[in-house]
Amino acid sequence: MTMLDVPAVAAVAAVAAVAPAVPGRFAAWRHAMATARARTHTAAAAGAGAARRTGWRVATVALCLWAAGCSSQPPVPDWKRNASAAADKAVAASLSGDGRIAQLEWDRARQQTARTGQITLLARLELLHCAAQVASLNLAPCAGFDALRADAAPAERAYADYLAGRATAQTVPLLPPAQQSTALVPAEQAAQALAAITDPLSRLVAAGVLLHTGRAHPDVIALATDTASAQGWRRPLMAWLLLQAQRADAAGDTEEAARLRRRIHLVERSGAKP
Questions:
Q1: Domain-by-domain residue ranges, the chain?
Q2: Whole-prediction pTM value?
Q3: What is the pLDDT of residues 5-46, one digit of tens each?
């Protein structure tokens, strides 16, 4: 018996104590019993409602505690979140050909990363910047990384050498898997190895390195052009189309060169200010 049962029992007992034996007062006794039963049901319903409410409150508190336990991972530091967002925007702007936005976002990513005082992290950021340049056939030295090379980790040095066309059998295992397959591949197998790279940016970076090292046959250049075109990346697409047009000119294929320059003109117009 619970505390909720006590009022009902007391009511029934009180009515039974005064219940008459004579028929003339039976109606009054029946009314009293009905009243007692109603009170019993009301009290029971109230108790059940209170119990349900209590149960829901306990369940809600338990759920909140469980959720808090599941989300107990430490928050991502502000610098990491900001640097990652800036780097993503910088790469996107670089590939779209918006140099002003790209420069602003690269500078922001560098500032956020430099807050850690970890040179290796900043070196990786500079390599990402240079990789985006190689994808667009800007094969200039990676000056940002070169200034940090002395304190960079072996994997970062290996990747920098790869971008510069200086990969060796000793450094290839340190490269990302996507770059390992094309780092030292012979020219006649380059297109097949390049097509096996599924990430578009990694494929364009590998194509840029193949060109830099003299292993980019026409099928490699065509694949790189198609990759940039499929992604709508204006800057690398313009670079690869221009390369194709120059080679068509050198081969005396004026019709092909004209066709390629019409494509170049179309891409140029896509970036024109309204």
A1: 3-70, 118-270
A2: 0.73
A3: 333 333 333 333 333 333 333 334 344 444 444 444 444 444
